[in-house]
Design goal:
The structure holds three protein chains of three kinds.
Chain A lengths: L1 H31 L6 H19 L3 H30 L3 H27 L12 E4 L2 E4 H23 L1 H11 L1 H6 L4 H26 L8 H14 L4 H21 L5 H15 L8
Chain B lengths: L3 E12 L2 E12 L3 E5 L6 H8 L7 E6 L2 E2 L5 H6 L2 E3 L12 H10 L1 H4 L10 H7 L15 H14 L4 E5 L7 H18 L2 E5 L3 H7 L2 E6 L2 E6 L1 H6 L1 H7 L12
Parallel strand pairs in B: 3-8, 3-9, 6-7, 7-8
Antiparallel strand pairs in B: 1-2, 1-4, 4-5, 9-10
Helix pairs in contact in B: 3-5, 3-6
Chain C lengths: L5 H16 L7 H27 L6 H15 L5 H23 L4 H26 L5 E2 L6 H23 L2 H18 L4 H23 L5 E2 L1 H4 L2 H14 L5 H17 L4 H18 L3 H12 L1
Antiparallel strand pairs in C: 1-2
Classes of the chains: A mainly alpha, B alpha/beta, C mainly alpha.
Chain lengths: 289, 251, 305
């Protein structure tokens, strides 16, 4: 029993991270059709900032989370202003926005990744934090993994609450359904877009910060998460934050169980397999009506 | 009685909870000139999307010249002889006008056996539409009105048996409207096509088509002779608050 | 720039190929190696632009195709001849592209790009697993590699073929279909283009050359392992070269590949990270301010004059 619980827990923990990363991308793409292929890089940046703060300054990683959020939010505003605003304004069609934002973010990916390589080198980095084991129902977890899961879940739920209950959240949802309609009602897209973009990067950063508490980090750690985020978005349905949460957890579980019964190296094959299967069977997402 | 070229049977289109097209039957025979009218949101363009294969209906069947093409992709409809224009002209902006027309000839136009020599040549089609002087001009550089004509030219390049025109005359003045309507009827007369024409400028359309179908909130509420339809109380009620009554032909 | 006729392009390519074929006997080793790199990127960029430039589908799968080709050589060179391995490498990549294309080419462009981006990693993991489980090895040693002259001439042939095929496609119905798909896919379909078939064909064709190049170049390394061969930088460089040159043209990627190969050769080893930061910045600036690449500058000048 403990073994299955352990496997399930692993899957949920990974899935929680996937959900947080995916929600950010979902907002950016769903709202602005900006496909930021460098999304994972900002996760990596969040991880490195936390690692650096802990090892160089001795700051508690959990306490540093809000700082990571703020820093990456501001970075998001800057990145949007420099890289994507021009595309959004000048493009004749949605397809062109997508295509150009993809290429720009592709360049951004190399820029950010190699800036980190330059700053901190290619070696794996890491630190110990809350590594004491905790026992729950015959399964043993290290405390940090539990903390990561709790925070990932909390972040996702908080975001869901914001989207559902606050004015700005409703504005975002309105915009995702009907950009023109939202503008007619007076929602200011010029301010909303950079804010949402920044929020997306902040979420990625938080995910990275959480990951740094458990795993070793490297400058190339971010790439797989971008792809996984897209797969989660497909699972949950574009534009649905709740779908992201459910989809992320589900994917985490599928991977955990799948890897156990086949082989850890086949993780990506599993994710892609799930992706293709969902696309073929339910293209609008598992949870759409 | 000419053969039925295009038949929509019980076509329904649902977007989530919204029913855009509700159990519509529409038949078009060879050489017929049919108009489709209705207030905004009546589902006309959505119906066109199903008739051309761009959208797969939630229910119902689409039969083109005896072949059931329901669910097939748009290119299958095109190669079976259904060509269409879009409400906002979708020309290939970086290609010349001639290349735009030739595009249809290269693809759907190739597979369609047709008696009319006018179809074989992009230049002739351009000339027919009054665009001969624009043959070498990139389509993106044409005025919107000429782009609208080019849209028709592209569709003709596909050598259709049925031509679907979606608001070919939007935004035109009254004289331009009459000219457009005459052109469309010429298309039908000289090239022997069946034409289905969606139009908001109802008065003009009614003067030219032989038959008109009226859509309202996704349902077909009338289908027949323009004069009879314009007197139909259900039709008049549907239009109240819109354009006013669709009038019969001025004597 | 007035488009040259197909025959002129083919003739020009043939002549250039003959001239370049003399290089192994004229150039010292270092420059020959550089020429080889130029030819490699020329083939990759031209074949990439053939599909992606026309359709505006951003494929980041070049690394995957390249690596597949490389492994065909790694596995097969002992039993097959070099030319056969190269062709087989191309075919294997094309087959993979057909499979992937059938699955994901009907998606919107953004999904397609991210998924092809992950393909390199996917295939790398799969090959690593396969090698470990069945052959109990991480990397392979290439034995009996052909001479550098043979490699050069082979790569030259592939590059020339890529240019010719690209020119022929652009002049053909397939090229027209791809251009229509790039301009307005739905519109093209309503005019009779079977978009799915055209895209898969174009994608597979472009993958063939990437795979063939991978198979041909693999012998340059004496030791091959998945990490070296499925290197995402190859894909990045290909995209950058094509975009800088002008993905809608034939000559743009060609000229650009020479420039970039030279740049890479002289700068990359000295400042590996700074160089990539520079390239990343370059791509960003390019897309924002000159999406048509340098070739579009030339066209504009011509039209005004």
């Amino acid at each position: 029993m403990g073994f299955w619980l352990d496997l399930t827990a692993s899957g949920l923990i990974t899935g929680g991270i996937y959900a947080v990363v995916a929600v950010g991308l979902n907002l950016q793409y769903g709202l602005m059709r900006i496909m930021n292929i460098a999304h994972g890089e900002f996760l990596m940046v969040g991880a490195y900032l936390t690692w650096w703060a802990h090892t160089a300054l001795g700051v508690n990683p959990l306490a540093f989370l809000p700082v990571v959020m703020v820093v990456l939010f501001l970075a998001g505003l800057l990145v949007y202003r420099v890289c994507f605003l021009r595309i959004a304004r000048g493009a004749p069609s949605v397809e062109v926005i997508e295509a150009r934002s993809l290429l720009v973010s592709f360049g951004l990916m190399y820029l950010v990744q190699n800036a980190v390589y330059l700053a901190w080198g290619a070696d794996l980095r890491g630190y110990s934090f809350l590594t004491e084991p905790v026992e729950i129902a015959e399964a043993r977890f290290t405390a940090n993994r539990l903390v990561v899961f709790a925070f990932a879940l909390a972040a996702s739920l908080a975001l869901l609450a914001v989207l559902r209950f606050t004015l700005i959240g409703k504005a975002v949802r309105a915009m995702m359904q009907s950009p023109v309609g939202a503008q007619l009602v007076g929602i200011n897209t010029a301010t909303l877009h950079p804010v949402v973009f920044g929020a997306g990067l902040a979420l990625a950063g938080v995910a990275g910060a959480l990951l740094s508490m458990v795993y070793e980090i490297s400058p190339s750690m971010g790439e797989p998460y971008t792809v996984t985020a897209l797969i989660v978005i497909t699972l949950g349905g574009l534009g649905s934050a709740a779908g992201c949460l459910a989809g992320g957890l589900l994917l985490g579980l599928v991977e955990a169980f799948g890897m156990h019964f086949t082989n850890p190296s086949l993780k990506m094959l599993l994710s892609y397999g799930v992706f293709i299967a969902v696309l073929l069977a339910r293209p609008k997402g598992l949870f759409s009506k | 009685m000419a053969d039925v070229l295009l038949a929509a049977k019980g076509v329904t289109v649902r977007f989530g909870g919204l029913i855009a097209v509700d159990n519509v039957d529409l038949e078009v025979r060879a050489g017929e000139f049919v108009g489709v009218i209705g207030p905004n949101g009546a589902g006309k363009t959505t119906l066109f999307h199903t008739l051309s294969g761009v959208l797969v209906p939630s229910a119902g069947r689409l039969v083109v010249a005896g072949d059931d093409l329901t669910g097939r992709p748009a290119h299958a409809f095109a190669t079976h002889g259904v060509a269409r224009t879009f409400q906002t002209p979708r020309v290939f902006r970086d290609m010349t006008a001639e290349q735009n027309v030739r595009f249809g000839l290269e693809f759907a136009g190739r597979t369609r056996m047709h008696a009319h020599d006018a179809f074989d040549d992009a230049r002739t089609i351009l000339g027919f539409l009054g665009l001969a002087d624009a043959a070498g001009v990139p389509a993106g550089g044409l005025t919107p009105a000429r782009q609208r004509l080019l849209e028709i030219g592209m569709a003709l390049g596909a050598r259709p048996r049925v031509l679907l025109l979606d608001e070919a005359a939007a935004g035109l003045t009254h004289t331009e409207l009459e000219a457009a309507a005459q052109l469309i009827r010429r298309v039908r007369d000289e090239l022997g096509l069946a034409v289905i024409w969606i139009e908001h400028a109802v008065r003009v359309l009614m003067n030219y088509v032989e038959r008109v179908a009226v859509l309202h909130q996704g349902r077909k509420i009338a289908d027949g002779d323009p004069r009879a339809v314009s007197k139909d109380p259900a039709v008049i009620e549907a239009y109240l608050g819109e354009e006013g009554e669709p009038e019969k032909k001025a004597a | 720039m007035r488009a040259l006729g197909l025959r002129s392009i083919l003739a020009a390519t043939g002549v250039s190929a003959v001239v370049l074929a003399a290089m192994p006997w004229l150039l010292p080793d270092f420059w020959l190696s550089l020429a080889l790199t130029c030819l490699m990127y020329a083939a990759l960029a031209v074949s990439w632009a053939m599909f992606c430039g026309a359709t505006n589908y951003l494929s980041l799968a070049t690394s995957a195709f390249f690596g597949i080709g490389a492994y065909v050589t790694a596995w097969g060179l002992a039993t097959l001849s070099y030319p056969v391995a190269v062709i087989l490498g191309g075919l294997a990549a094309a087959a993979f592209a057909t499979l992937v294309g059938a699955a994901v080419l009907h998606l919107r462009g953004a999904y397609f790009a991210v998924l092809t981006f992950g393909l390199g990693e996917l295939v790398r993991h799969a090959v690593t697993y396969f090698e470990k489980s069945y052959f109990k090895t991480v990397g392979r040693v290439i034995q009996e590699a052909p001479s550098s002259t043979t490699v050069y001439l082979t790569v030259l042939l592939i590059a020339a073929a890529a240019v010719c095929v690209c020119a022929m496609v652009r002049a053909s119905r397939l090229g027209l279909a791809l251009a229509g798909i790039g301009a307005d896919e739905e519109r093209a379909q309503t005019l009779g283009v079977n978009a799915r078939r055209a895209k898969i064909l174009g994608f597979a064709l472009s993958a063939f050359f990437a795979g063939a190049i991978g198979a041909a170049i693999a012998v340059r390394w004496t030791y091959i392992d998945p990490t070296a061969v499925f290197n995402p930088f190859i894909g990045f460089q290909t995209v950058l070269i094509a975009m800088v040159g002008g993905a809608h043209t034939l000559i743009g990627p060609l000229v650009s590949s020479v420039v970039f190969s030279l740049l890479t050769e002289f700068l990359r080893l000295q400042f590996p990270y700074a160089f990539l930061i520079l390239l990343g910045t370059l791509l960003i600036l390019l897309v924002l301010y000159l999406p048509g690449g340098l070739a579009s500058l030339m066209q504009r000048r011509w039209v005004r004059g």
